[in-house]
Design brief:
Elements: E1 2-8, H1 13-25, E2 30-34, E3 37-44, E4 47-54, E5 59-64, H2 68-75, E6 80-83, E7 92-93, H3 95-106, E8 111-112, E9 121-124, E10 133-140, E11 145-152, E12 155-162, E13 166-168
Parallel strand pairs: 3-8
Antiparallel strand pairs: 1-5, 1-6, 1-7, 2-5, 3-4, 9-10, 9-13, 10-11, 11-12
Length: 171
């Protein structure tokens, strides 16, 4: 069995995935479908909101023995564009490529919608230092924290802050 990349129309990944799963339950010989979703959090109206986002937009990865019968069963699904590769033969993904993609998805904590690079100027939106401005020294997305240097009594002081209490300062 090999891995293949199936391209879908925009916003059809979930519909195509569920339709393929339905066909698998009816006997279509496909071993696995990989269409990962990651959790992203963003700040809206001062509240931390989580939302789901496709990791590989418009693509679904399928492990199977490719055949014309399978292709005909899949291409009839609404939203399917086709397999990535030449018209007659889809490209095969290596196990190593798939393992890299799976490892990337499995070990991640929720990501913020906005990333804070070292050196970025930020405004603190809540907490003891609300309305202070500072410079990001480092960011740890797994702990949802950032070290920010702020100026208190003309001295630079580093403080650890939650990412959802920061916003980028657009001067």
């Amino acid at each position: 069995m090999s891995w293949y990349t199936l391209q879908t129309s925009p916003n059809y990944e979930a519909k195509v995935t569920s339709e393929i799963e339905r066909k698998i339950s009816n006997g279509l010989p496909i071993r696995e479908i990989f269409a990962p979703i990651e959790t992203i959090f963003e700040l809206k109206n001062g509240q931390k909101k989580e939302r789901k986002k496709r990791v590989y937009t418009n693509y679904i990865f399928i492990e199977m023995d490719y055949s014309d019968d399978i292709w005909h069963a899949i291409k009839g699904i609404r939203g399917v564009v086709g397999f990535i590769g030449s018209k007659n033969k889809p490209a095969v993904l290596s196990e190593k490529e798939m393992q890299v993609m799976k490892d990337k998805v499995s070990g991640e904590a929720p990501k913020p919608k906005i990333t804070f690079d070292a050196g970025a100027r930020v405004r603190i939106t809540s907490g003891s230092f609300a309305d202070f401005y500072g410079i990001v020294k480092s960011t740890d997305y797994t702990k949802n924290k950032a070290k920010v240097a702020i100026n208190i009594f003309n001295r630079e002081t580093e403080v650890d802050l939650e990412l959802n209490t920061l916003e980028l300062d657009v001067e």
